[in-house]
Write a structure and sequence with these properties.
The complex is a heterodimer of chains A (275) and B (333).
Chain A lengths: L8 H7 L22 H11 L4 E2 L6 E4 L10 E7 L9 E8 L6 E7 L8 E5 L5 E9 L4 E8 L20 E4 L10 E7 L22 E8 L2 E8 L8 E6 L7 E7 L4 E6 L6
Parallel strand pairs in A: 1-8
Antiparallel strand pairs in A: 2-3, 3-6, 4-5, 4-7, 5-12, 7-8, 9-10, 10-13, 11-12, 11-14, 14-15
Chain B lengths: L5 H20 L11 E4 L2 E4 L17 E6 L2 E5 L5 H14 L4 E5 L5 H4 L2 H6 L4 E4 H22 L14 E3 L15 E5 L12 E5 L4 E5 L15 H12 L5 E4 L9 H21 L4 H7 L11 H23 L8
Classes of the chains: A mainly beta (275), B alpha/beta (333).
Chain lengths: 275, 333
Amino acid sequence: MPIRPARRRLLALALWPFAARAAEGGLPSNVGHGDSSKQWEHLRSQLFGTRPIASGADSVMQLVVPLRAAYGASVPVKIITRVPQTPERYLKRLTLLVDKNPSPIAATLDLTPALGQADFETRLRVDEYSHLRVIGELDNGALHMDSRYVKVSGGCSAPPNRSALHQIGKTQFRLPEGLHPGAVTPAEVSVVHPNDTGFELNQVSLMYIPPHFVRRVQVAYADQRLFDAETDFSVSENPSWRFNFVPRERGLLTAEVEDTKDGRFTGSLDPWAAP
Amino acid sequence: MPLPDTDARRRRLLLGMAALPLGCATHPTASGDGAALEVADGVFLLPGVRGEIGPDTRGRIGNAGFIVGPTGVIAVDSGVSHRHGVQRLAAIRQVTRQPVRALVLTHARQEFLFGATAFQAAGVPVVMHRDAARLMASRCEGCLKTLVSLLGADELAGTRVPRPDIEILGPDTADRLPDIGRPVRLLMAAPDHPGVSPGHLAVLDERTGTLFAGALLDAGAIPDVQDADLAGWHAALADLRRRSLQHVVPGHGPTSSPALIDRVARYLTQLAARTAALLAAGMPLSEVADAADLPDFATDDHYDTTHRRNASIVFLRQERALMLGTGTRTSPN
């Protein structure tokens, strides 16, 4: 991922004034979904320099997150793109951020028009009350964003499940709504993996469990690339992505997965043969 | 469970009726630092308040209690902060001058354990199962950080993650409670059945049949499955049904009759059935919390929070089981 040097941070500050609306006791209870944060100002200048980013009604991106999220270890995040994905105009990159996580860039997705519709759903770890943001870049370079402030915390979360370690990397597809030949069809790819963050204490030894997580998922249909996801440990255990594809001709859905210990795994599904 | 005889059934009915007004009386204020309520002869409840951990409740949502014997007191669970622990110890002192011989922490959840350091400061040893102590050590610094952001630094002043003085290892060490001149028994799951939470303890006052259930039972409040093995939890509930209980002091909510055991089991069964149906229907996780409504429990405390989280957690576990058990084969390159 290209990290641009921090330039003209002042401009970013001016564009995104941080509304410090602290409630009594200093509790961040009435932070707005569209507000900025210290972390975002920094990330914005690192990732996008001074480029304008459309937001609110001008944005083609929509982020759907439970406001009082259910479970900090696995917060469902739905990304909706308000325009179809066509060769003439398409979303070429998505960046998914959790402002206050130790590693805020949860995922970067490179997309192709073959998706048909660039909607996604995944699950993220959210360590403390934080904004979640998605920034989409169209093929013409225009940037669009949406953000949600999520009140959840992982402080008391149960640890990941580390049983069945021999199945780490098992990669599977599902078609939750069946096959729609010639039309946009939702699919889901998931990988059995603890996605260890490196921040968790072993309950017995009280040593930190070393990080071990899925860092890349590349998904194709009929040998045509759909999307490549570069991911971090902000993605929950057993990483999963809901996405779309358009099954025009017969072919296989395939995934190539790589983790931080150079584990390489694959999974595939013939959607036409699915029950 | 054998059918109760008529007398026992009548006692339960009476107790059920008695539980209602008592239930109202246990939540008179939002302060959570109220006086002790006598549940049975020499057995007392220090009630938590309804609601979530937040400024309005000051986080004081968990029950605690104590048993007064001829030669001492056993306290069960503490409170959400050092300050809360100080106040609860003072509430015990208002009832009895007998020395508090031990504080049992039933499980590693924040509203029950952070008051323990106040008891230790007064010379009271803290008893905890080793597995619960390990869970606490591995995650509760994080809980404390979150608590400070929720309740403010003042409310949490002086609060630390406690370290138990006496660690219980298994059923053969269950008699390690100090003697208070009346029989008090620690109940715990078999080591291979973690049940409701790793190293969970319950405390039974044998003379009155009063059970301090900790996380095993909540009354009028949604039980939390976050640390639970559901099969183990059901096994623990079956074990409770075999005992001759008279009163239950739940982790949250008012003192209840043993009929509460069946209600909690029913919740767990309905929860798992509901999420399994949603998983089979291909529902994405983002819609599960909304779709997993259980009308029988909709008026329970924590329904809008713990129940929604429970649904996500059980759904994710069932999804994982599906991933491990079925689907396409894969092979590493």
